[in-house]
Write a structure and sequence with these properties.
179 residues; 6 helices; globular
Length: 179
């Protein structure tokens, strides 16, 4: 997918070492949000490992956004949970926010989910943070009860709580594909 100014493509091994830095910088945006989201400080310091990204890249579940054909500015990481495509994370460098890169990454994940026969894309996100819940709702996602999807989706909530996140500020969302 090519869009003026940037390109979305599958990640290659040479991309992987740069992704934790993008994740960390994008994560700091949550510190600017005026309400307490309950994000423990250690979560800002502990991005996904290169090994996690490598496994997703090998499985075809990792996409990157580049500008000028080479500079990495964002990524989307997906996984599969109980037959659903699950968007684990989208991150875009703050200096490239608001340019449609996150939307293009999301569209690529939804297209992949459709092409691979997944009935829906699921995710967990902050309900009220503008670049989270409202962003996904404006792109066709709706809030659902995790238990309506699968036990593994309920476990995602439990895991978030165990890591110290305020799950009362978060929601599970779903986008039904044409797959």
């Amino acid at each position: 997918m090519n869009t003026p100014g940037f390109e979305i493509r599958r990640a290659v091994p040479e991309d992987l070492a740069l992704l934790p830095g993008i994740e960390r910088l994008a994560g700091y945006l949550f510190k600017t949000y005026p309400l307490d989201l309950g994000i423990p400080e250690e979560m800002y310091q502990t991005p996904n490992s290169v090994e996690t990204f490598a496994a997703a890249q090998k499985a075809g579940r990792l996409w990157v956004a580049t500008v000028s054909g080479e500079e990495l500015v964002g990524f989307a990481l997906a996984m599969e949970i109980e037959g659903y495509a699950h968007l684990e994370e989208i991150d875009v460098l703050p200096s490239y926010g608001g340019k449609g890169i996150g939307s293009a990454l999301l569209a690529r994940v939804c297209s992949w989910a459709t092409d691979t026969g997944h009935p829906a894309v699921t995710l967990r996100t902050f309900r009220d943070v503008p670049w989270n819940g409202p962003f996904y709702q404006s792109r066709g996602f709706r809030i659902v009860d995790s238990a309506a999807l699968s036990a593994a989706h309920v476990e995602l909530e439990v895991s978030e709580r165990q890591r110290g996140l305020r799950t009362d500020t978060r929601v599970t969302m779903v986008y039904e594909t044409a797959g």
